[in-house]
Amino acid sequence: MVTDRIDRTDYRIIKELQENGRLSVVDLSKRVNLTKTPCAERIKRLEKSGVISGYFTQLNPQVVDAGHIVMVQVQLSGTTARDLEEFNDAVRRIPEIQSCLMVAGGFDYLLKVRTRDIASYRELLGNAISKLPSVLQTHTYVVMEVVKDDVTLHLPPNQS
C-alpha cells in the first residue's frame, strides 16, 4: 500500500502543496525543513507513486460563467455491468458534469453540474443528461448557496 511509505515529512509536503500547488521547491523545502534536492526527490516519488496525482488552478466559477450549480439524482432503467459502463463513459464526455458519484439508495447516481444559468442547465438536461444511456428519470436540485466545496483532502493531524 502506498500510504505505508508516507512519513511525516511527506505529509507536510502534500499538506503544503494542497494549500499552494505553485510553491517553488525552494520555498517548499524551507517550509518542511529540508534542503532543495531531498525535497524535490520526495515530490517526484510522491508523484510517481500516485499520491500526488496532478496539479490544477482553482478558478472563480462566477467569472468564467459556471456559477450555476445543480445536483441531479439519476435513476437508471438497468444496472447491469454494461449499463453502468456505458453510463459512466458517456458522463465523462460531458464537461459540465463536474462530479458523478454512484450511490446506494433510492437512485443510482448523483451528479454535480455547473452551467452559466438555469436556461443553460435546462438545455443540457434536455440535450445531454436525459439522453445518457439507461436513464430512467432524473431529479434536479438547484444549489442556492455554496457553504463548503473543498477540493483538498483532510490529512490526519498526527501525520503532519
Automatic annotation (TrEMBL):
<keyword id="KW-0238">DNA-binding</keyword>
<dbReference type="InterPro" id="IPR019887">
    <property type="entry name" value="Tscrpt_reg_AsnC/Lrp_C"/>
</dbReference>
<dbReference type="InterPro" id="IPR019888">
    <property type="entry name" value="Tscrpt_reg_AsnC-like"/>
</dbReference>
<keyword id="KW-0804">Transcription</keyword>
<dbReference type="Pfam" id="PF01037">
    <property type="entry name" value="AsnC_trans_reg"/>
</dbReference>
<dbReference type="InterPro" id="IPR019885">
    <property type="entry name" value="Tscrpt_reg_HTH_AsnC-type_CS"/>
</dbReference>
<protein>
    <submittedName>
        <fullName>Lrp/AsnC ligand binding domain-containing protein</fullName>
    </submittedName>
</protein>
<feature type="domain" description="HTH asnC-type">
    <location>
        <begin position="6"/>
        <end position="69"/>
    </location>
</feature>
<keyword id="KW-0805">Transcription regulation</keyword>
<dbReference type="InterPro" id="IPR000485">
    <property type="entry name" value="AsnC-type_HTH_dom"/>
</dbReference>
<dbReference type="InterPro" id="IPR011991">
    <property type="entry name" value="ArsR-like_HTH"/>
</dbReference>
<keyword id="KW-0010">Activator</keyword>
<dbReference type="InterPro" id="IPR036390">
    <property type="entry name" value="WH_DNA-bd_sf"/>
</dbReference>
<dbReference type="Pfam" id="PF13412">
    <property type="entry name" value="HTH_24"/>
</dbReference>
<dbReference type="InterPro" id="IPR011008">
    <property type="entry name" value="Dimeric_a/b-barrel"/>
</dbReference>
<dbReference type="InterPro" id="IPR036388">
    <property type="entry name" value="WH-like_DNA-bd_sf"/>
</dbReference>
